[in-house]
Design goal:
This protein has 70 residues and is mainly alpha-helical. It is built from three helices and no strands. Keywords: Membrane, Transmembrane, Transmembrane helix.
């Protein structure tokens, strides 16, 4: 058991990594709560449904792209 990947050393390394990750996740979550990242849920609910393609007002542009504005 000379390798650090055997026995209790490996277990303690994983436990330390787990504790470090939990602290990081908790700190990001607390930051998000304090900065009011979760306040506008009604707007966030509809963001994926909004179209990101602007409607073309120019008929020549419609002919080039093959889309109609309506």
């Amino acid at each position: 058991m000379d390798s650090p990947w055997e026995g209790t050393t490996f277990l303690f390394m994983w436990l330390g990594f787990l504790v470090l990750m939990l602290i990081c996740i908790a700190s990001f979550f607390l930051w998000a709560i304090r900065r009011n990242q979760f306040t506008d849920q009604d707007r966030a609910r509809y963001l994926p449904l909004m179209s990101g393609i602007p409607a073309a007002d120019d008929p020549q542009e419609e002919a080039l792209t093959g889309r109609s504005g309506s």
